């Protein structure tokens, strides 16, 4: 049920997703939707929570398979690339769609979105620091600046995918992006 709401909000955005679209997607009547979630903001908040939890687990799994900072950053880039290439990625990213409408969201939801972007930025900065410590990253650029660039890149992948322009083969893109770590 929440996965259907995620798909609806990711493809349509918060504002454009109507209650009738959400009821069709979830299979719930309007009354059941209101009973379960309170209102459209409640549906969105729960869908966003699930979306972030699922993606957070995938990121943690990808990071756990690598042994150094550079490898972990490469894993994050590849993961975002794969999300951008699958059918759901071409439909849209819930975070990107929501950030585009940040001022229309309930304050707690907007704060949660800003927080998750900040967490992703902090993670990337920590991975740059880790790579410097294990000598897999040699850039002298500030870790926060590198993290800002990487965050912009991965979120940009999701935007480009929605536009239908993300490449079928992402490895050349990942390889080029990793050069900023040298």
Report on the architecture of this protein.
- With 182 residues, the protein is mainly α.
- Helices cover 75% and strands 0% of the residues.
- The protein is built from ten helices and no strands.
- Helix 3 packs across helix 4 (40-64).
- The longest helix is centred in the middle third of the chain and has 27 residues, at 107-133.
- It is elongated and about 60 Å long.
- The protein starts with a helix and ends with a helix.
- The model has no long low-confidence stretch (mean pLDDT 93).
Derived from helix and strand composition plus strand pairing, the structural class reads: mainly alpha
Question: In terms of per-residue confidence, which ranges show pLDDT below 50 for 5 or more consecutive residues?
Answer: none
| SSE string, helices as H and strands as E | HHHHHHHHHH
Described by strand count, sense and barrel closure, the largest sheet is: none
Helix share, percent: over 70%
